Amino acid sequence: MSLILTTKNIFKNFEAIKAADNINVDIESNSTVGLIGSNGAGKTTFLNIITGYITPDSGEVYFEGRRITGTTPRQITHLGIYRSFQIPQIFDSMTAEQNLTISASIAIGHQANKQHLRASERSLITLVKNSMDQFQLGEYRTQLAGNLPEGVRKLLDIAMSLVMKPKLLLLDEPTSGLSADEKFNIMDMVMTAVRSKKIAVLFVEHDMEIIKKYTDRTLAFYNGQILADGTTNEVLAKKEVREHVLGNV
Question: What is the pTM of this model?
Answer without folding.
Answer: 0.87
